[in-house]
Description:
Strand content: 15-25%
Number of strands: 5
Largest sheet: 5 strands, mixed
Distance between the termini: 16 Å
CATH superfamily: Sulfate adenylyltransferase
Helix content: 25-40%
Low-confidence stretches: none
Shape: globular
CATH architecture: Roll
Mean pLDDT: 78
Order of helices and strands: EHEHHHEEHHE
Amino acid sequence: MYEYDKDELFQWHYGETEEEANRIASEIMEGKRHAVIRYFDWALGGSGNLTTAECNNLSNDRLQGLLAECREIYPKTGDINILTDWDGVPLCVIRTKGFGLMHLGDIPMEVAELELGETDKKAWQEKKIEEMLDVLPASAVNDRTIMSIEIIEVLEKLYQQ
């Protein structure tokens, strides 16, 4: 049993639009989604002294080091939060089971499956690239560019009314 003070928990939604936020929340609520994998906003959390070419060649271990430098703005393993819909209505309590950064092309199938149960890695990557093309220029999206470094958050739903 997890103990938490509801008034002390951070409340948020996933997604950049109302449709996306409510879809992701619904998938988590229905037990279809156990991870959220989204592109890493390098301008928000990245190290400003690296060139794009250097970033493209970062190892996944080095990405974890860069993430550690900006941890205050991202969840940590073990964090408990309240998931809301787009309008801020609390839906359920979630716990972050794992969190990290990785190049899109390096994300293992076991992790991709947690997102929506997709078992075809190529089909899953194509869906992720389509999602990224909604918010990024086409020149920034491939399996190794800096803009395709992904935030991976593995979730566990703890409580739902």
